[in-house]
Amino acid sequence: FTSAVMLAVMVVHVASFSLPSSFMPSAVLSQSRMGVVPVCKPSRHLFGSLHMAAAVGIDGLIEKARKAKSPKAPKRIYKAVKKKSGAHSILLEFSRDEEVPDHKLDELSLTFRRGSVAAIVVDTTPEGGKVDLENFVKEQTLWGKGEFPGPCPVIWRGNVKGIETVAEAKSLGAQGVAVPADQFEQDDLAEVVKACHALDMEAVVEVMDQEQIKAAVDAGAMTVCVRFESNAGASFLSYAAKALIPDIPDKIASVAAVKGRQGGPELEQAGVLVNAKFNSVLLTDFVGDARDDSCIRYTKYILYMLASKKSKNLQINELKAGAYGYGGGAGFQAPSGWGGEGTHA
Asked: Which residues contact 75 (CB under 8 A, 6 or more apart)?
């Protein structure tokens, strides 16, 4: 009888907390090892959003979006991008590299959040891209609440065909959708932006010229991202984006895209755009495989270099690489690829 009771207690104990330790922050893990049952306090807003999407289903979300009259635009992403302080912000994009299998994104997601990233853009076009978006949403939802900074909004990017895509993004927990202006007529663009607002999401409209900026604003978008689909040099594209800043109304949150993983030039290009008064810089194709340990060091290094808490202006100091790479000392080593004598930032 005693053995049976002990077995029952063990079963109940295991069933009461079955989350793998690899998903737990160190503080929570240490508590669980001491016999303290951790209490997770996930984001009520994000969980409520997920529960609503799961209960209604994609068809229900589409119907809700179409029936909406004049929905009010949420401003979570807008406020994260266009800070009241005037300081610039950073968005980072995850785009899974070819032939990379499903893998854990928890540590990378945590690094993004602790680096005060304004939002995480997830490319859903590669195979497994939608799984990646879900994983980022889950990590931010589970562990972001109660921390400072709080959860990062997650933005869907890729193959936006209309309201149906917006509804699917909502069902996966996304809080925003990157909408390419060049793929929609004015009325259709306005319909997609309205659908985002009706489902408590934000549209980040990608633009490439003056006409598209105007179309985005007329459609009701509060955030635009200057992002060129071009094979031109990244440095040239940065200066092309700079030329468009006068056409973006002051009330609109402005983001400029810079290609990530260039090995150094992204810092200089980001500096040009921030000093041109863009509210934020999006580093595209920033990470493609979170299994690579160097991606965490790369993320921390870039965020450290782009941080500007004391000034609205980003200062990039020209610095020859030494034994420890850029800006390095004995206790601060840049990731591999940043220490070549022939390069500088």
From this structure: 202, 222
